[in-house]
Amino acid sequence: MKKILSLFTIIFTLFFFVSCSSDYKMTIVGPSGAPSIAVAQLAKESEDYEFNLGVDPTLLQSYFVNNSVDAIIAPINLGSKMYTNNQNYVLASILTWGNLFFASQQEFTLSDLNNKDVIFFGENTINMAVVNYILSQNDITPNITYLGSTSLTQTELLNSNSIVLIAEPALSVAKTKKEIFSISVQEEFKKLTNIEGFPQAGLFIRQETITNHKSKVDKFITEVEASANKTITDLELVAQYSEELSLGGKKEILLNAIPNCSIKFTKANDTKDILNTFVNISAIKPFFGVLEDGFYY
Hints:
Blueprint: H1 2-23, E1 26-29, H2 34-37, H3 40-45, E2 49-52, H4 60-66, E3 71-75, H5 76-86, E4 89-96, E5 100-104, E6 117-121, H6 126-137, E7 143-147, H7 150-159, E8 163-167, H8 170-175, E9 181-184, H9 185-193, E10 201-206, H10 207-212, H11 214-233, H12 235-244, H13 251-257, E11 263-267, H14 272-279
Parallel strand pairs: 1-2, 1-3, 6-7, 6-8
Antiparallel strand pairs: 3-10, 4-10, 4-11, 5-8, 5-9
């Protein structure tokens, strides 16, 4: 009888934990723009997750520190620095590979940035690591004013003749309102390194959630991959969803912008060599934390 009760207890306990895990609703935060467009289809169609995709980019660090959500969409270098500090979150995948442009209402060349007052966003992020590398390799030293987001540099672009740093889809939105000239940061980076794009933003998963709800996490990552692939296989649907989620503009604008967002889901373990090569560029290395094996899910 005791054996039967013991077996019943084990079965009940296992059922309880499996049931709790399957019912667990993961919380995900991310900024508006290209990285969150990668999960637009999942955010709109699934009720299994709670998404907040309008987070101010300057607040992302606090989520890593507070350890309060299950997943964070954030710049790769921010996630690596936070892992170095507290190991709360690990990298599950890279989502975007560069969507940056220098832009102005005036025609310009890259050399025109030298000794020029320019307006950039993303201080101390992977975006600026790449931009600084391009500028230094071309012996260009601008006078930089930093703003908190690409939406703010978009405002400056539309209201002045300044050269700004801007990201898609904000650039495509601006082009519907004014004549805009632009230079691709990705193309300038490729000229110097022969690297097609750069690991820009990724999906980070909380260690505690992996421990307690691993099957749920694995299912979520698989669904994020499928959602990211939809940006290629069903662009119209993703553009519609992205408009409804306020991730970057109207559908007709996003149809042009999303292909320039370099959205490509790549699993963490498949990015080790790419990230190590990238981080070993001397101008970029200081922006990163330690990339040890534990950083990759």
